[in-house]
Amino acid sequence: xxxxxxxxxxxxxxxxxxxxxxxxxxxxxxxxxxxxxxxxxxxxxxxxxxxxxxxxxxxxxxxxxxxxxxxxxxxxxxxxxxxxxxxxxxxxxxxxxxxxxxxxxxxxxxxxxxxxxxxxxxxxxxxxxxxxxxxxxxxxxxxxxxxxxxxxxxxxxxxxxxxxxxxxxxxxxxxxxxxxxxxxxxxxxxxxxxxxxxxxxxxxxxxxxxxxxxxxxxxxxxxxxxxxxxxxxxxxxxxxxxxxxxxxxxxxxxxxxxxxxxxxxxxxxxxxxxxxxxxxxxxxxxxxxxxxxxxxxxxxxxxxxxxxxxxxxxxxxxxxxxxxxxx
Length: 327
Ligand SMILES: NC(=O)c1ccc[n+]([C@@H]2O[C@H](COP(=O)([O-])OP(=O)(O)OC[C@H]3O[C@@H](n4cnc5c(N)ncnc54)[C@H](OP(=O)(O)O)[C@@H]3O)[C@@H](O)[C@H]2O)c1
Hints:
Elements: E1 5-9, H1 14-23, E2 28-33, H2 51-54, E3 57-61, E4 79-82, H3 94-117, E5 124-130, H4 153-167, E6 174-180, E7 182-185, E8 187-188, H5 190-198, E9 211-212, E10 214-216, H6 217-229, E11 235-239, E12 245-246, H7 247-258, H8 268-278, H9 283-286, H10 294-298, H11 308-317
Parallel strand pairs: 1-2, 1-4, 2-3, 4-5, 5-6, 6-11, 7-10
Antiparallel strand pairs: 7-8, 9-12
This protein binds NADP nicotinamide-adenine-dinucleotide phosphate (NAP).
NADP nicotinamide-adenine-dinucleotide phosphate (NAP) is lined by residues 10, 12-16, 33-35, 64, 83-88, 99, 103, 107, 128, 130, 180, 182-183, 188.
């Protein structure tokens, strides 16, 4: 994809920066952010964005709720990608729950309004969604045809987020909700994994039998490009590699790729205490996430990283050793 104007709401985060790296050299990107400060390095300690990419990116302030000057950017934009939302990696207190809901629904509504007022609206609006919408699965993978959703908090977040997205009337803009699995790349979940490995705790978590659906961030970007190029595609798509593994297999692959011989397991009771201490929820680790990207495969899309081993090796190959070893 070349010479397109891409608007990235919440583009300062992990996936946003991966998208900038992928598209930024040949396209112009406008990042909507609540704070006009630019990160120069990512969590891996490398230059976050190359100079020639940085020059193609502008940062524009919005608050993720209200209309404002930022909406002018939507005139003549080609693609809008909305990634904005408070991280779910926190304790699910009532206050946090409300912000998790509101940050996703408000930003989605604000983008809908910006598209409606645009003189020439964008061709495509991709809204982040999450594969967490599918239930704890132990007897087979779920795909887009599944509709029997639970009332758990995280599932409700996903549903309300998608409902808000589909409630936005944008007749001249194609809409796709990307139900993303755990995304692997230069940052995100790899950071806590590296910290576990450093301290010899890179073993299985819980029983280790829970499934782990994942996607390499480069495949997320390739999927966005594919969806843009294939003008008939709209609706819900799982953004998950077809190669889900068990937690045990994932941790073993990670240990092999990083040269860690020993990895002590973390039992459920240890995770409960640890999660409370570091301010997160065990659901993020113990839920069995088993998802198939049936719809995108049916369109002929081919994943560059269908196997966890290849995805992890590629990420480790560009990670400084000191990130996953103490010395
Ligand atoms: N990473 C994954 O594995 C994964 C998997 C499934 C779904 N997702 C979803 O995909 C989206 C992007 O993921 P990510 O890992 O890139 O997330 P991230 O690193 O946490 O970035 C999200 C961005 O959202 C903005 N934001 C945070 N709180 C906000 C609020 N209260 N109101 C408006 N904007 C807010 C922030 O930008 P500013 O501070 O610059 O405004 C932040 O950079 C998220 O919505 C996430 O739930 C991620």
